[in-house]
Amino acid sequence: MTSVQEHPAESTDVIVVGSGGAALAAAYTAAANGLRTIVLEKTEYFGGTSAYSGSGIWLPGNQAQRRAGVPDSVELGTEYFTALVGDRTPAELQRAYLSTGPELVEFLERDPALRFQYMPFPDYFEAPGRIENGRDIFPVPVSAAELGDRLARIRPVIALDQHGIEQDRETLTGGQALIGRFLLALDKTGNADLRTGTRMRSLIIENGRVTGVVADGPAGTVRLRAGRGVVLAAGGFERDHESRARHHGLPGGGWTSTATGTNTGDALAALRAAGASVDLMDEAWWCPATLFPNGRAEFTLGLRGGIFVNSAGERFANESLPYDRMGHEIRRGHATGVSHLPVWFVFDDRFDNVPALCEPRPDPAAFREAGLWRTAGTVADLAELIGVPAEALQRTVDRFNGFAAGGTDSDFRRGEDPFDRFFAAGDGPNPCLVPIDRGPFHAVQIVLGDLGTKGGARIDPDARVLDESGDPIPGLYAAGNSAASVAGHVYPGPGVPLGSGMVFGYRAVRHILAG
After folding, report:
1. In 63-222, where does DSSP find H-type helix?
2. Mean pLDDT computed over 145-155
3. Under a CB-based contact definition with an 8 Å cutoff, are residues 184 and 151 in contact?
4. pLDDT score recorded for residue 415
5. Out of 59-68, 157-166, 333-342, 399-408, which region has the weakest mean confidence (pLDDT)?
6. What Cα–Cα distance (Å) separates residue 491 from each residue in 58, 283, 499?
7. How far apart are CA 75 and CA 386, in angstroms?
8. Rounded Cα distance, 30 and 226, in Å
9. If you classify domain 4-276+454-514 with CATH, what class do you get?
10. Model confidence at 241, in pLDDT bands (50, 70, 90)?
């Protein structure tokens, strides 16, 4: 057995477990306020799932929005958010998230390394308080030259990290920029010790208080003490097949878009061992995902044409729905007994042998060889190749083509919502309804993926982890996907996972500072 050694010299004020947006927001808040901070990341890269993301951050009423002239406010965002989430999560938790967003952005932007800009991306639901072009802010791109050696420590984008597809990294955008900018800002504080290859084994609990962690690192297994608090922001349990089967009851636990080797439920296990109450264990940030030949799946976004059909050869939803809403439709449909796993994405040849998607862009040859992309000269022949009733698929395609000609989707209202039209590429009366009439015809396999699980510790507005009695566990905080989502069963808009995770990481340290 590996010996556990005490290293008093490595004791610190705050330990943050994880290195995505929520974790680094907590770490920066601590380090910038003079607290000695250790960040533990178990893989070789910083960034977690946040590094894969487009890095939209949903924080209504912030100063980056105001600079762009976006007519938003905390009140408007609250109206929208609460209309969707209702009372599924505590009202005080929702208020804490929404009211703190502007304060968080103002605090972060005091450091020139942390810069944000507004970019349009529609909210996901028609509800009071919605802004049609969205309210997301994004990190300003950062150059590789400015990052220097830090670039090699940032988890690459999913295409490179999981599929070996080379990417230009001269200028980092999205989640890459967010993590890069946090690393720049953290280094400047002089108070942050950022460690990769260091996995939390367990929490140290003394007299009912969390006082540190036991971690496995390059030097072996050690105890690291935190005098002020421990923040767990190490993601969810989407890579833990046993937990996925138990809580979600679905095949394909490996279909998550998150990085291999991450999010295996370490934080959840530690939280439960400490007596934490958990919630939303049956939920995830769902999405349709393109299954790749290596068995992994990638978040699928931005349909520009084509339709989704189930095992009956029929459409079952508006294919242009926001990804989490489509994910829920796939999950709900599968439960009816008409298999929605896999879904087949059916399209014609007008897109020059490329799926009508913004992301990802699969390689046709490799996908065909793996049986994940099938092509036929007629719709009937395609139906045979994908194992659905030929008459049903032909009827589905003919009906859809009629909708495309008339401009109205009488079945699912595709093209009526601003989000539908955001990615649209058609030139007919409804740009979301692109006919499927130019052979050969194609079908690509789509599965139910996710961007992470939603289940985790119940927290209070200061991100303190709550026990089964509803009382805070002293010294223990959680944020990001290690905490049960403030959004409950819905995904209100792009950037809610990052925005809420960063807010509660910030609020955790703000509470530590006030203690």
Report:
1. 63-67, 74-85, 91-108, 144-147, 158-163, 174-189
2. 97
3. no
4. 97
5. 333-342
6. 11, 11, 12
7. 49
8. 12
9. alpha beta
10. confident
Output the six-digit token pair for 281: 């264990």
Domains 4-276+454-514 and 286-450 share a fold: no
Q: Do β-strands 456-457 and 199-206 pair in parallel, antiparallel, or remain unpaired?
A: unpaired
pLDDT at 129 over 80: yes
Q: Which residues pair with 216 in a beta bridge?
A: 199, 221
**CA within 13 Å, CB half, 138:** 20
Nearest to 504 by CA among 489, 483, 487: 483
- Among left, alpha and beta (phi > 0; psi -120 to 50; other), residue 47 is left
Tell me what pLDDT residue 8 has.
Answer: 45
Inter-residue contact 450 to 479 (CB < 8 Å): no
Q: Can you read off the two tokens belonging to residue 118? A: 């507004």
* Amino acid symbol at 441: F
CB 39 within 8 A of CB 196: no
pTM: 0.96
Reported residue count of the chain is 515
Contact indicator for 4, 217 with CB cutoff of 8 Å? no
**Dihedral in degrees, nearest 10, Cα atoms 249, 455, 20, 79:** 120
What single-letter DSSP state applies at residue 3?
-
CA 338, CA 335: separation in Å to the nearest integer? Answer: 7
Among 23, 129, 116, residue whose Cα is nearest residue 85: 129
What six digits make up the tokens of 183?
A: 């690393």
- What is the distance between the alpha carbons of residues 139 and 113, in angstroms, rounded to a whole number? 10
Overall fold of domain 286-450: Flavocytochrome C3; Chain A, domain 1 (3.90.700)
Q: Round to whole Å and give the CA distance between 96 and 445.
A: 41
Q: Are 462 and 215 in contact (CB under 8 A)?
A: no
Each residue of 452-499: pLDDT tens digit? Answer: 999 999 999 999 999 999 999 999 999 999 999 999 999 999 999 999
Residue ranges of the alpha helices (H) in 350-491? 364-369, 379-386, 390-406, 418-422
Q: Which helix (H) or strand (E) holds 23?
A: helix 21-32
Helices within 285-339 (DSSP H only): 323-334
C-alpha to C-alpha distance for 163 and 249, rounded to whole angstroms:
27
Q: What are phi and psi of 134, to 5 degrees?
A: 85, 175
Nearest Cα to Cα of residue 452 among 499, 500, 485: 485
Range scoring the smallest mean pLDDT among 139-143, 290-294, 345-349: 290-294
Please report, for the chain, the start and end positions of each structural domain, with discontinuous segments joined by +.
Answer: 4-276+454-514, 286-450
CB of 77 closer than 8 Å to CB of 60: yes
> Residue 163, Cα to own-chain centre: how many angstroms?
19
Nearest-angstrom CA–CA distance, 314 and 310:
6
| Rounded Cα distance, 483 and 263, in Å | 13
DSSP 276: B
Dihedral sign for Cα 68, 69, 73, 76, please.
Answer: negative
The three-class DSSP label of residue 165 is: coil
